[in-house]
Amino acid sequence: MAQQFGGSILTISFICFLLFSCCSSTHIQNSDNNVYVSDLKIIHSGYVHGGIGLDKPYWMDKLVICGKYYNKGLVVHPEDGGKIAFVEFLLLKKGGRLMGLAGWAEEVGITYNGKMRFRFFVDGELIYGRELRGEDCQNLDLDLGFGSVLRIETDDGLDGYYSDQMAFGDLRIEY
Ligand SMILES: [Ca+2]
């Protein structure tokens, strides 16, 4: 009886071990290899009009850039008056590449005939920056180096609030 009981405990333990191994490795694999910036901890931000758009803009439920819908991404719309909006994220670990697409987050009935700018910094050092027009799309594939804070800045491109709905589709770090 004791032997039977011991055998059952062993069997149950083994099944639990298999389940745990399976589920935890899948989870770790996903989070280790592909981390979305919108899921990272924000440690500092300012001058973001309407709030930081985590996976969607504040004005609608869908993030659409250059005609494509994104389930994950980031919208950093600067405050009017030439303000520089910024958001700082705590990186989970060193290294990796910043991937995604930069462009204008669409809004029905709003023109995109203007400019916007974005810049990425790692631990205060500029790693990439660009000016885009509203209809432009820019693929991103940037080496993050070994820093611990990713800072994203956006501004209106020095031509006022036209096309300053700066957004990043599928913005993620691949390790
Ligand atoms: Ca502008």
Comma- or semicolon-separated keywords:
1 helix, 175 residues, binds calcium ion, Jelly Rolls, 5-stranded antiparallel sheet, alpha+beta, 6-stranded antiparallel sheet, 13 strands, 18% helix
What does this structure look like?
The protein is an alpha+beta fold. The chain has a single domain, classed as Jelly Rolls. The chain has one helix at residues 2-33; strands at 34-36, 41-46, 53-54, 63-65, 68-70, 73-75, 85-90, 97-104, 115-122, 125-133, 137-143, 149-155, 166-174. The strands form three sheets. Strands 1, 3, 6, 8, 11 and 13 form a six-stranded antiparallel sheet that branches. A five-stranded antiparallel sheet has the order 2-7-12-9-10, with no helix packed on it. Strands 4-5 form a two-stranded antiparallel ribbon. Strand 9 and strand 10 form a beta hairpin. It starts with a helix and ends with a strand. Bound molecules: calcium ion. Calcium ion binds next to strand 9. The site of calcium ion has 10 residues, from strand 9.
Total domain units: 1
Look at the structure and give the mean pLDDT. Answer: 87
Tell me, what is the CATH class?
Mainly Beta
| Backbone CA Rg | 21 Å
Overall outline:
globular
Helix content: 10-25%
Could you give a short account of the major beta sheet?
A: 6 strands, antiparallel
The low-confidence parts are: 14-30
In CATH terms, what is the fold-level topology?
A: Jelly Rolls
Calculate the terminal CA-CA distance, rounded to whole Å. Answer: 51 Å
Q: List cofactors, ions and other ligands.
A: calcium ion
Encode the helix/strand succession as letters.
Answer: HEEEEEEEEEEEEE
User: What CATH architecture do you see?
Assistant: Sandwich
The helix/strand class is alpha+beta
The counted number of beta strands is 13
What percent of residues are in strands?
35-45%
